## 1
Amino acid sequence: MTLTRLLTSAALALGLATGATAQDKTKVGFIYVGPIGDGGWTYEHDKGRLAVEEHFGDAVETVYQESVPEGADAARAITQMALQGADLIFTTSFGFMEPTLEVAKKFPNVKFEHATGYKTLPNVSTYSARFYEGRAVQGHIAGEMTESNTIGYIASYPIPEVIRGINSAYLHAKKVNPDVEFKIIWAYTWFDPAKEADAAQALIEQGADVILQHTDSTAPQAAAEKAGDVITFGQASDMAEYAPFPRVSSIIDNWAPYYIDRTQAVIDGTWESQQVWHGIDEGMVKIGEITDAVPADVKADALALKETMAAGEYHPFTGPINRQDGSAWLAEGEIADDGTLLGMDFYVEGISGQIPN
Amino acid sequence: MGAIDPALLLAALVVAATPILLAALGELVVERAGVLNLGVEGMMITGAICGFAVAVNTGSPAIGFVAAAAGGAVLALLFALLTQLALANQVASGLALTLFGLGLSSLLGQGYVGIKPPPTPRLDLGPLSDIPFLGRVVFSHDLMVYLALALVAAIWAMLKYTRAGLILRAVGENHDAAHALGYRVVRVRVLAILFGGACAGLGGAYISLIRVPQWTEGMTAGAGWIALALVVFASWKAGRVLLGAWLFGGVTVLQLNLQAAGLAIPVEYLSMSPYLITILVLVIMSADKSRAPASLGRIFHASQ
């Protein structure tokens, strides 16, 4: 009897002790769409998570789940994380939008941050980067570098984010090379190295000598390297292991400062729902080193373009720009508003093919 | 449409089909022995990293492929121990094997991200490779492609004409009868499972060493599940597995090429076409009397 009571009280004390430490620590969760070793999108989000751990040390505990499929299963993964006591959960793919909102309604005390979406709640923020600024630099270099005037683009899903990237790259390639043509493949996946490699291969066989990608793995880089005379750009991550050739530059997503900010806000109790869209200016989008495979004057022009965007002097979507069907979108000197950009569902004039619905 | 070179397309088809072909052939033998191993994805990805790591360290893709087969077989051995000796449930063990393989491979692969494997040379067939069209389509692949094709013929002949094939089928159709005749059911099944693991491992390494070629976590991305489905739709016949793999690989590559060529077919239809066409063709073909091995998935113990 005494023994049982002793054990019970010991267990209770232990329970209280762990309960107390759990309350001290802020728990931050991350839901990833791919594996952290993808070398691209998820890899960079995880670098942000590690930066949070390093910045806050013992004050913060982070948890993550990788390779969560978009759709119904995501809701289960997010719910599980909320039940485990996470105070703040970052869901890092567009397709997690509805599951995030659904779970957020059930856990009003947990804060949610959804990447690249557009729907918010009092406890759901959205955040994204103006990747199209980086795409402008890519398009510029691609237009200058292509000899076949054919640029291959591996797109993932037909969402505004991806369409914006295609339009921005095309406009800036066209600006320096009026003969340029885009061949676009919709892979319908964020991460499938074999399929991405096949897509790159198909584009190369169709005459593309520049490959741009909006999928997450480094497989297209490997395919370009195998082909020998095709250039690529790192996507989401620097992908420097393929520099200086075929990878001649990259768009790097830098999430760490934002993740640290928002974790701090939760700790301070100042967290509020917001919609954030940062670009080169705020450092959320970075341009990876432009290698020597690019001629010096092209490199200088590309860097100048980057500077004007960082300084706010130039917006990649500045008129005159027509829609694909020839109707006017932006008048001379007019700048696209964020609302249109966030919901972009049309190609600009000159791109052939249709956007899948 | 005119921009698509049929020779290049057919050559790409073979490359795209080989990984699932190898994995499906292995699973075919396993299932014909009456065992359902759902761990193909796990064994493939383990083979992918084992082959990649060894090829990088030795500089020889050939040794890499041997290591990939060994890696897949070792993982399969775990499944064999669980299901044949410990008599665990095959479905649960197979699913666990996939999860374990995915985790193990990302652990093993941590030092190998961003490294380039040694190139696997195309087999030099001399003047044969110079024949227009045929040379590019048939005679200019790497050794693994031909090995996979030889395997199709060997498995078909083994199952149809040899005593070993008869025993394997007997074990898969009615393990009690096979046992009563004095055949060692467990031994036959363990060997089949090991063979299946080795084949899946080779298929995985084909992705990491030739098709992509690089190591990325989770890079098989569901190829193992497609191989599994293929075995069922191919009615457990080696020839149809080959047909299914080529159809699937072919339509996958074709739809990407059609997109790149700017053909005016809605992309949604193109994207679903590999699955749809493969299933359709194989289902129509399996309208004959073919059926699953009768003892498939059933646990055997000599005392029963």
## 2
Amino acid sequence: MKRLLALITVGAVLAFAQAADPGVTDTEVLLGSWGPQSGPAAAWGTVNIAIDAYFRYLNDQGGINGRKLVLSSRDDGYDPARTVGAVRELIDRDNVFAFVAGVGTANGQAAMPLIKRAGTPWVGPATGAVVFTEQSDGLIFTSFTDYVVEATLMTRHAVETLGSKNIAIFYQNDGYGEEGLRGLEAEVARLRAAGYDVTIGDRVSYERGTTNQGVQALRLRGSGADTVLMFSDPSAAATLVGEFQRLDYKPQMLASVTLLDPALMANPAMQGALFSVFLRLPSVIVGEGNGDPIADQLYRDVIVAYAPEIARDPFRALAGIAFAEPAVLALQAAGRDLTRESFVAALKSIDGYDTGLYHSLSFKDGYQGNNSVMLLQVTPQGLRPVSDWLSL
Amino acid sequence: MSGLDQLAQALVSGASMGSVYALVALGLVLLYRTTRILNFAHGDLGVAGTFVAYTLLTQLRLPFGLAFPLALVAAAVIGMLVYLLLVRPAKNQTELGLLILTLGLALALGGLDALVFGTDNKLVPTVVADRIIRFGGVSLSLVSIVTSLLGVVLMLALWALLSFTKLGVAMRAVAQREDVAEAMGLPVRTVLMATWAAAAVLAAAAALLFAPTTLLNPNMMLDPLSKGFVAAVIGGMNSLPGAVVGAYILGVLELLVGLYVSLEFKASFAFLVVVIVLVLRPHGLLGRADVKRV
């Protein structure tokens, strides 16, 4: 009889354990993430430090629906092979409820099959590659305005507002750069059909890791382009603008958000260039009085208060909070009775949320929640906003 | 812009990149012909020197004219330490063992740079304030002229060191026959240490001249190092003039291929040149066959 009772008890406990999704207890929700704390992209490690700070900030205000948010984050050194190992551990050993952020396109692509096989929701990949929304399978929700949309909006602004007639693109010959090219080509075709006199002067690529952009600069100048879109890494951009200076070639430059690197912006040759951003920025970046109040509040109350060590890297710090924001919203909306199903349903119900770091966040019509960018210009005083929010 | 102007501009741009490749290649060849070590840590030695310069320029606000020589001195010291602490204790290693040792050193130096200076990009000030100078349809920047000139000065200094100083003659003697040089009473260890120091100085000079044209980070010299290797192989691994010739040929050809053939092909073109040179002239353009005397 005792054995029977024990069996029934064990059975009941097991049944209960199976009913609840992994990573959720009465008091906690465990979320997983990865990012480089070492290796070539270690600066992006700021993202995960910021998310951890954001969770501690929320926990000090009582958590979400009575549960504390716990982040389990792994250092993958920006190496996709290590990302796979990290994600496997987070799923099998830590039993995370969902993933948030996760830095790197190649890293995310390596992790994606594992995450999908485990049925784990993944919110806010820290990359603008379209592959994650295109292959979401109802599990991946992105909020980083993708590079195709970014290039589309940059091109539209250049033609409609700046009067550009001849646009060229300098892009990294990989998925990231090619998405920029895709956006440019589609938008120029649309604008021409709408009667605008605009052409693509040249499509100039470089191989990742190469450092001599002399030919690229010559080709761009030779194309006579009045505007150059840049989808490269900061080092390649720095080399290119150095060559531009040498050639005395001064096109209007429009740079992807991935180029928002303090060292690049400090380069005198970048004066006047426009950068796109997909989230609200605080005064510490865009100058006193120009900052967005929401970004200012989060920068002060989360970053400065909980992670002062990353306060000198405000853009990546706020981006970290932004990547986690949709997950937090959905955890709130899903209520106390939290399952992966209710979490995903809550994500899908986010519609036009505009009181966070995004201009407007919606997953009602798809898995790409944010389709807006704002343009900032490099001025002698620093970065200054020069456009309203541009949206598709 | 006319086709001729564009060609002239490509030649000028190619030559200024060639100066950086030449300094890298010279350091590699200098070390290889004296010690038979292919130094994969060459780029990282250069980056370490550049970080020293960056610290002097931005933290201590020293002028470039002072920071540059001080960084070269620091690089020389690092080069000597590498010889004393790593290479000398491993002197009985095979050539392969020493090659692996330099690979390990490259990883360690890269990690150390990241630890001490961080992996974020850094903007290195230029040698002089930039100005554009025009010759007909070709425009040159003052920075690239000064950079190229500094490169040439360093190459001439190396040539003078090897040709007219006792140390230089001793270096060449050790390069030809280490055992005989030792038997003749030459201080071989000091000579080898000086060779490591000189190679590290060349590496740091290349990195220092290159850094202001891009952004400084621990991986900055990966591409110039591989191109320096290519230049050294084109010129002949044991010929210093060959390294310089190979570097300028590579710098210019790379740009011409990018301009007239294909941008995608530009990155891999250098390695095609190596294959062609090795098939037609196995010892490079100016190199000599390594004859093993028994």
